[in-house]
Amino acid sequence: MPQDFQPTKYKLQSFKTGKIFQDEGWTLDAPGEESPSLIRAIFENKQLNVRDDSFGLYKFADWLPVNKMLEGSSPPVTYKSKGLAEELGLKELYITFSGYWPEKGAKMHTCSFKETEAYSVGGRLNPESGEVLVVASAGNTSRSFARVCSDNNIPLLLCVPEDNLNALWFDKPIRDNVKLVVTRSGSDYFDAIHLSNLACQLDGFIPEGGAKNVARRDGMGTTVLSAVTEIGHIPEYYFQAVGSGTGAISAWEANLRFIEDGRYGSNKMKLMISQNHPFIPLHDAWKANSRHLLPFDDEEARKQVEEIDAKVLSNRKPPYPIAGGLFDAMTDTGGDVLFATNEEAAYASGLFEKLEGIDIHPAASVAVASLIDAVKAGEVEKDATIMLNITGGGEKRLKSEKEVTYLKPSHVFEITPSLETVKGVLDRLF
After folding, report:
1. 268: nearest Cα among 362, 331, 214, 178
2. Residue 400 phi/psi, 5° resolution?
3. Angle 73-392-362 (CA atoms, 0-180°, nearest 5)?
4. What is the mean pLDDT of residues 241-270?
5. Residue 298 scores a pLDDT above 90
6. Residue 343 lies in a domain
């Protein structure tokens, strides 16, 4: 690992007021502001200087709010599609791949672009604090944070729905500094978030922060940094499947930085984001031109989540209405919120593997299915530059080459445990 790494110089800014302030180490909100707003990192380097591949993800450190490098990272890889592009009649389709595909230079051993978040968030952490990082996840995020924190000796508490435990596989054992607790079968991501919020009320535990953490968003934004620097200009369309929509917010923010950079064009990518039907709250709100999610019944939402194959796309409380969130990103850039059924996504998955040569995750399959539909419907021009964000893949390939182990939970909580119960369990674990 390179030894000449210096902390990135940046400040933070409130999206709502434009106020600029210092990062106090783990700032998640603008100080003194009552109205909710995302904050953004304002980097000293306005032009992106891409380092060599020995830096891993940190080749993009100019636009990552980090003070150190962690071991073992791999950046997203962008290449021009041949097979899928020809099938769809597209001239400028670029695929940004995050996962395990050694021939392409993609070496994410958790097979998900959530690694980009984990390495960026971990690089922002102060290791001297001794605090336990708390992460809630439906699957891929927890796997990535577990691997990164295990490899770099960062204390971590994972909160995951019990029904998603099959996502907690690893190609080498996870160390004891990582603890997993779950909400019992029948719960979902929203319940795991509630559990993590209870944990963060206790001394010594800090929230990872989700979309509010600039390091998480800027880590995800490296997919766009990879694409734009490879293509040479900002694409016209950006396709990705979303649960929270944080990846799309990150893409928008990266896009704005490239406009300020001045070397890659001045256009804003149309965000073409998609969900897995029947769980489509973002789609429904956007189509209703509503800044807020439409009312829905929690039990009905849980049933819908049970039906979808792409479980990671099941966020019931996404950063959609907040200032600087998904509604603002979509409004500023144009584009649309699409959806694909399980059957459409399964077909897209098989087609992608056949034409491009690698297996992809269900969420990425939803994005491919939505691209296919958009092309058929004439919603994208055949000669437009399109970025297709394949957010996870190569899992089948990796598991065929390596023996995997599963992380077992240290405790199974009821769906809505008491703070006292959570405290008792965590006192024992940590």
Report:
1. 331
2. -75, -20
3. 160
4. 97
5. no
6. yes
273 contact partners, CB below 8 Å, separation of at least 6: 239, 240, 241, 242, 245, 248, 282, 330, 335, 336, 337, 338
At 3 the pLDDT is 64
Task: Specify the DSSP class assigned to residue 407.
Answer: P
The answer as to whether 172 is a domain residue is no
Q: Which residues is 181 bridged to in the sheet?
A: 159, 411
Q: Strand 20-21 vs strand 10-14: parallel, antiparallel, or unpaired?
A: antiparallel
pLDDT tens for 189-245 read: 889 999 999 999 999 999 999 999 999 999 999 999 999 999 999 999 999 999 999
Question: What value does the mean pLDDT take over residues 128-139?
Answer: 88
CA 277 to chain centre: 20
pLDDT given at position 403: 94
Say which residue the tokens 């893409």 belong to. 251
* Contact between 327 and 321 (Cβ < 8 Å): yes
DSSP string, 60-109: GGGGS--SSPPTT----EEEE-SHHHHHHT-SEEEEEE-SEEGGGTEE-T
pLDDT at 240: 98
CB atoms within 10 A of CB 76: 27
Would you state the structure tokens that stand for residue 54, as one six-digit string? 């020995």
Neighbours of 162 (CB within 10 A): 18
- Packing angle of the helix pair 246-261, 222-231 (nearest 10 deg): 40
Count CA atoms closer than 13 A to 41's CA, side-chain side: 32
Q: What's the domain range around 285?
A: 77-107+216-399
Determine the Cα angle at 41 with ends 39 and 44, to 5°. 150
DSSP state of 233: S
321 within a domain of the structure (yes/no): yes
CA pair distance 257, 250, nearest whole angstrom: 11
Global confidence as pTM: 0.95
Give domain status of residue 145, yes or no: no
Q: What does the pLDDT look like over 332-374, one tens digit per residue?
A: 999 999 999 999 999 999 999 999 999 999 999 999 999 999 9
φ/ψ of residue 145, rounded to 5: -65, -40
How many distinct structural domains can be found in the chain?
1
CATH of the domain at 94: 3.40.50.1100
**In the predicted model, what is the mean pLDDT of residues 102-122?**
96
**Mean pLDDT (the chain, rounded):** 95
DSSP H or E run through 24 = none
110 burial via Cβ count (<10 Å: 0-12, 13-18, 19+): buried
Q: CA-CA-CA-CA torsion for 256, 257, 263, 265, nearest 10 degrees? A: -10
